Amino acid sequence: MVKVKLTCFADEISAELSEQLDVLGQEGLRHLELRSVWGKNVLNLNDGELLLIRHTLMERGFRISSIASPIGKYPVNEDFAPQLQALDAAVKAAHFFETPYIRIFSFHPPVHEPITDFREEVLNRLSRLAEMAERNQVILILENDSNMYGSTDEGTQDIFSNCRYPSLRAAFDPGNYVNSGVRPMTDAYPKIYDSIDYVHIKDASIEPSQFVPAGVGAGEIAQLLAALKSRGFEGFLSVEPHLHHYLPNASNPERVVTAIRALKSLLDQAGQEWE
What we know:
The protein is α/β, with parallel strands linked by helices. It has helices at 17-26, 47-60, 81-96, 119-135, 153-162, 174-179, 184-192, 221-230, 252-270, and strands at residues 3-8, 31-34, 36-37, 40-41, 63-67, 101-104, 139-143, 168-172, 196-201, 203-205, 210-212, 236-239, 273-274. The chain contains nine helices and 13 strands. Helix 4 (119-135) links the parallel strand 6 and strand 7. The longest helix has 19 residues, at 252-270. The chain is globular and about 45 Å long.
């Protein structure tokens, strides 16, 4: 039986690595996204901090699934050089933690201007990032975040139709598609399914507009899991809770556990094994 791998944006649990690992271990997860620890973004961690993280992970039997960088979450008309420098830092972190994956985004428009006016610049920047990734033997996973060129199904499809690099793949995020007025499985999945290497498990409701546990919103996550199972997907499903509005009185660990258990329930219903 093919198994998917569960991982999580563990900094939503706590800024403390030990607390992150305690909660993930309690839920049976052995992977985590490295986005921030001790209040510092992964790209700002120094060598000593990276070494301490790696030692702690090895000691407790955890691995990093991806370097969850903020690369590309950046105005498309600003200097590109810092983004290349950021990718260099992300590549070093990916090699250090022995993961091929680095999460990126597809750039914000300038204030009050449509991102479609910057199509050529977006594609050029993503191509340059992908070329650098290819030289360094890592894979960029592009998240379809809101208010960016790749926020919609058309934008995402345009990116993968024109930036044809083995080093550029999709991190499919149903909740973000819902927030952009896109039906994840009806509209987006058929257009980019062959580019998907990684999945963010984030669901969202339309009214009220907020992130919710998997299966509660309009993210068509049960259909997504069925489609992934049918194609023999054995990659990462990454829980990204964002449940502050849905569970305003819960603690951060409680929100994350709610999100993880919602996904595990859907996997059980789908007959999909996980590790």
